[in-house]
Amino acid sequence: MSGHQSVSHSMQEIMTVSSPVWARQRKEKRHTHSQSLITIETTVLLFKKGGKYSTVKGLSDLTDTGCKVTTQLGTGWIPLLDQIKGAEQSGNFETTSECFLAISNGSADVCVIDVPTAESAALTNDDLQIIELDENDTFTGDDEMVNVCIATRKDDTALRDKIQDAMNAIGWNDKAKMDELMDQVLTQQPAAN
């Protein structure tokens, strides 16, 4: 048997353990606490540091500028690109690393991405900048973009319960614990050291 298996499950066979509270709590911390990163909902813009668009404060600042926008293929951020009126679709990429490279080499001007990925990119790429968006001039329809869940087979309640117990043990619904954990793991990723 090969190392790859084809898995197909109907929605009735799958149950989830979900943590949407954490995504919102993380968003709130970044909105009120950071000088360099203010997020509205869960989506931010990533630009080349010191570049043409580094002073953008809201989506309207990008209207009809012809900026080249990108994001990762297969994500919910693709429809958000259309909210940047007059932007040029520069093509989307398989990986976020390719998106960041496109910003760095100038083949794209703006990357639409989630907060944790943007934070990681800015931490490991000195030429990238996360832009603060005015809360009255930001994306719409992105508030559920980073809800996280873990799916298990519906009849595997033992696995579901183990996962739930593990999430409870790390305090997934405790804002302070999750903020502390996220700050810690961002600095422990291989590229940060």
Q: Mind explaining what this structure looks like?
A:
- With 193 residues, this protein is an alpha/beta fold.
- It contains five helices and seven strands; from the N terminus they run E-H-E-E-E-H-E-H-E-E-H-H.
- It has helices at 20-33, 96-105, 115-124, 157-169, 175-188; strands at 14-18, 43-48, 68-70, 88-89, 110-114, 128-131, 149-153.
- The strands form two sheets. It has a five-stranded mixed β-sheet with strand order 4-3-5-2-6, covered by helices on one side. Strands 1-7 form a two-stranded antiparallel ribbon.
- Helix 1 (20-33) crosses helix 5 (175-188).
As a percent range, the share of helical residues equals 25-40%
Q: pLDDT below 50 for ≥5 consecutive residues: which ranges?
A: 1-41
Give the radius of gyration.
Answer: 18 Å
Q: What's the overall geometry?
A: elongated
Largest sheet: 5 strands, mixed
Order of helices and strands: EHEEEHEHEEHH
CA(first)-CA(last) distance: 39 Å
Strand order of the largest sheet: 4-3-5-2-6
Structural class: alpha/beta
In short:
The protein has 193 residues and is of the alpha/beta class.
Please describe the structure with a list of short key phrases separated by commas or semicolons.
single chain, 193 residues, alpha/beta, 5-stranded mixed β-sheet, two-stranded antiparallel ribbon, 5 helices, 7 strands
